[in-house]
């Protein structure tokens, strides 16, 4: 009888996108008829349904305690074969402990023994996509072999380099996704992009954390350079990021600001048609890697050793050395030292130089 397996990741969109390789290995480790369900934040799951990465969604509004109770009850009404939790919080562990599953897998920490049957060490020296794959290593001997080979190679893949591709078995790319031209999202995106007569590059200049944003002036100057080079600039972002994208778009001739107009899946459809994506260290950067679009990430308050590099062989980053970096795990609303020099010291020419390496 077909079973359902469950992946839990209720963190932000970037963290969720980085579970794509884990989703693949969970599928490969289960009988073909099994279903994969995803428990994630409200509004993020549709992308994974549309791209066929999962078959069923449980979504929660994390700010609403009654929604938590409702979703918990829905989850408790199911029996799962294998449950993998990529989320490390105590609250998630208490939910996991209350669910019916044949096998529960989570990360090792001093208190999680009561929630999980298998507790995997989180290999903090590796990028996040590989840390996540450690959760599935005992499910699949082939993956276990890859992880062991990686450990013995001494490579950590922390620094994006065109000379050192990421391991293909850990890819985030959905390049083999086949679009259905009859779906409304595909038709909508084709309609939007029909206005563009040149190749285009995408900018994702927003972030939940203001200090992770490169400057408006920097993006504007970069966009002007791309315009002169014959590219259209397409801006992507959420409705909340619109003030920022509009300010940038206003300074770039013939640019197209799509912020707030495309959902996650539609943004993916736009990105996969673009020549290049330039992003802050944000969800858009990870979405661009999923779209298999060459990606430049601009890093300020965060650093590569935190694990969130763009996970693609066709990605590079731009950063400057400053003694205050990193100043937090996620960035913050305000620069603690009041200068934001980690971003203001990055010039448009620095970013353009890196972009050119990916455009050749
Ligand atoms: S403290 Fe340094 S790294 Fe942090 S936001 Fe300010 S300039 Fe950037």
Explained architecture:
This protein has about 350 residues and is an alpha/beta fold. It has 2 domains: about 5-155, Rossmann fold; about 185-360, Rossmann fold. It has 14 helices and 12 strands. The chain has helices at about 15, 20-30, 45-50, 65-75, 90-100, 130-135, 140-155, 185-195, 215-230, 240-250, 265-270, 285-290, 340-345, 350-360, and strands spanning about 5-10, 35-40, 55-60, 80-85, 100-105, 120, 200-205, 230-235, 255, 275-280, 295-300, 315-320. The strands form 2 sheets. Strands 3-2-1-4-5-6 form a 6-stranded parallel beta sheet. Helix 8 packs across helix 11 (about 265-270), helix 9 (about 215-230) packs across helix 10 (about 240-250) and helix 9 (about 215-230) crosses helix 14. It is globular and about 60 Å long. The N and C termini lie far apart (about 50 Å). Iron/sulfur cluster (SF4) binds near residues 301, 327, 339 and 341.
